[in-house]
Amino acid sequence: MRALACLLLVLAACGERAPTNPEPGARAPLDLLPGQNQKGLVVLEGRPDRPFYWDFDRVPYGEKPSHTFRMRNTDSKPVTILDLQANCGCTQPRVAIEVQGERIMGRTKSPVLTVPAGAEFELEIAIDTRLVEKMNIDKLGVVRLRCDSENSPFLAFETHIIVERLFRSVPAELDLGEIPRTSGKDGRADLSTELAGSAARILGIERVEGPFGATVDATQVGAETIWILLVSARPDQPLGTVHGRVLVQTTDLQGQGDKGRFEVAVRGQVVEPIVLRPASLTISSGAGASARIECLPPGLKVALLSAVLEGEGSDSVELAVSAEAPDEAGRASAFVLAVKPKGGLPEKPLALQARVRLSGPGLEELRLPIAIQPR
Q: Domain 2-164, CATH 3.40.50.2300 — does that match?
């Protein structure tokens, strides 16, 4: 009965498959690496002097290196890994076991995985260098494994890494925000060396991905060189979110060669050149509410041709439109639409629409849904 219970526990944790690893008695005695218990969860492959440690050494920013510790459960009964805890969000551990030729991944919450007696499994530790906060210095990552083995209830794995990044961008990601469909939009990022006095240099644009164009030019600010990256979103793109990146070509840390690369992510939202904020109104008081018409392209001004309310009960509601800083012809870059019930809130809800006609190109008519709550 005890053997049957153990088998059921293994099947529940490993996808209801029997383990392919033979029982411990069928294995040759282990020649364990030093510095660990003789029983419980043990490391089979690792550094002879430090089995729970791995040195990634120097890794370029943007890469995601990983190391796998091959391990075995030397206890005479199954061991359940309860959790894996990393000291940093950039350190990402996971465990896996092979069952009847199929690789079964551990869960991300407790219990993570149950390892049968005598079975081998893998602990992989990956480092996402994009999430490391400080560049070009030593970083020690720690992963703590907690299990229900009486012989090895707690294990700590350490990793060392130096994430090398020659340059930095301010801002780190270029968010163009709202991009007018008819005119596009420009944005700027300032690139500089990560280390003061570095001989590294930016040589030019390697490539641009997404609906963007880009240029980069060097300028001197005191003793420091700054490379100004100008990115332009092309006009006439489909409405919606756009993503891309600019990859620049650089030298190495000593200022030699042209094999270095540095990237800046770019994103934005393509919208109509004239927008309503908010896109709809809900009125629940006699004071009414207002919306604003904005022309997004710099310098764009339009004239108001007409503004009317439509829908049942519209005659009981007042609509007023005023231009902000209009020119002599009455054209402006922004207008305010004020909506107010004439005699207070109605006795029943109203569903209206304000229809506004403008003289500007690209979007000559705007429609504003208006919901008025009853008193």
A: no
